[in-house]
C-alpha cells in the first residue's frame, strides 16, 4: 500500500437527493362484518386491487380467518409509493368457503372500499365503511388500513475506535495497526464496510472517527453480525493478523453518551497454542453518534401537511374569455388548459391536506369594485379568506370570477410568491415540520417583473415552499427556463444564489396530447426531494405522529 489512508468511505450528505420511490406496508383489519353463514360466522379474506389504466387488477390477497366478524389480518400488503401519482386502491372483503377458496360471487361479497395510497400515508390510519354494490352500506361494517414506510436508508452512524496493548508484530519497532469492519451477510459472505487509516508505530492507537450508512454497516438490522479485524500494516501488502472480535450494531449502541464498549481482540491460533493467553489487545469504541436521514414519508406520516395555493394569470394576452379562441374560454364540454393543469396537480396535493381547503389567487386583472389592477387577489373576492373548498371549489370560483373582472396586465408574479412566502415564514418560526407550501402558478407568457421574481424566489428558497410554474398557450417561454435552476443556479439580481432549487417550469403544450397525470408526474416528481432538503437543512425532524383518529371526510360512498 502506497498510502497510509486505507480507503475512506465518502460521508453521506444530509441533503443528498433520496429516491422518491418508497415501499409502503399496509395492514388491514375489519369490524362488524356481515354474517353470511347460517351455522357459524363468516370466514373473511381481503383482496387488494390497484387501478391500472382504468382497470382494477388484483395485486394480492390476505389469508382466510375462520369464523370471525372482527378480523385482524396477519398478511402485510406491500405497495410501491409515488407522491406524484394518484394511486387508486380497492379493498374487497369476501366470505370464503373452505376448499372452494375465495368466491367472488355477490352472495360472498362482504363489502368494498376505495381510497388512494396518498390518503393512507397522509393519515397513517384510515377507517372507512364497507359498501356493497350500488353504494349500499354493508350494515355497520368498517375496514381499517394502517400504513408504515419500509425504511431503506435510515441514516448513518459516526464511530470512534481506539485500541490498547496490541501485540507487537515488528522486530525493530512497534506495530502499525489499522482496523477493518466486515458485515456478515445472510449467505455468510463478508462485505467490507470500512477500513481505518494506519497509525504508525503505536500499540495503543486512536483511529480517526468515521461515518458509515446504517444500510452499509448492518443492512439496517441491529442484530446482524459484524466481524472486526486488527492488522499490522505492511507496505508490501502482507499485513500481519493481530486479532479479531465479533459484535453487532445493537451492542455498539451501548457506547452512546459517556459509556464505552470494549472487546478482547483475539487471535484464535494463540488461544489454542498458549495456555495463559488472554487476548492480543483490547479494542474500545469511544463514541457512537447516530445521524438519522429522514425520508419524505417520515415527514408526511409525522403529520406534515401540504398546503396548496394556485395563482392564475388574468392578463389581457389570454384573450377575451367570451371568445372561443381565448385561453380562458369556458367550454361546457372541454376544460381549458388552465383548468386541466389546476385539476391534475391539485388532485394529488389534496390527499396531503386534511382540511381540503386551497388558496386560489389571481394576478394581472382589474378587479371590482374600483377596477384597479391587482397582482394578488382572491378569486372568490373574499380578501379575508382566499381559501376554496376542495379542487371543485377552486374550479367554481375561477368560473364565476371570469365575468366579473377585466383582463389587463402586466404579468407580475413576484407579489404572489412573496404573499405565500410570508405565510411560509410564519410557519418556519414554529420550528416544526408541520406545513409545507406548494404554489402553482399558471401563466400564458413570460413574466414582466423578472428581476423581482428572481429576488422573491431566492428569498423563498429559505422557506418551506416549492413553486411550480405551468406555461399555458403557445407563447415563447424560453426566458422562463431561467427560473428553473436545472441547468444552472438561479441568482437574485444582486448575484445571491438560491439555497435550494425550488422552481419547476413546464410548458403545458408538451403535455397537450398526454393524459393529465403525465403533467402532474412531471411537475410534482421533485417535491419530495425539495421537502426533505428543506427540513434537512433546517435540521427539523419529523413530528411525532398524532394519535390516530378515523377520518370523518372519508365516510362517503365512492
From TrEMBL:
GO molecular function: calcium-dependent phospholipid binding
Stretches assigned to the C2 domain: 2-130, 137-264
Keyword Glycosyltransferase: no
Xref: InterPro entries: C2_dom, C2_domain_sf, C2B_Copine, Copine, Copine_C, VWF_A, vWFA_dom_sf
BP GO annotations: cellular response to calcium ion
Ranges for domain VWFA: 307-506
Pfam families: C2, Copine
Assigned keywords, A-Z: Repeat
Single GO cellular component term: plasma membrane
PANTHER family membership: COPINE, COPINE-7
Family: Belongs to the copine family.
Protein's name in the database: CPNE7 protein
Source species: Haliaeetus albicilla
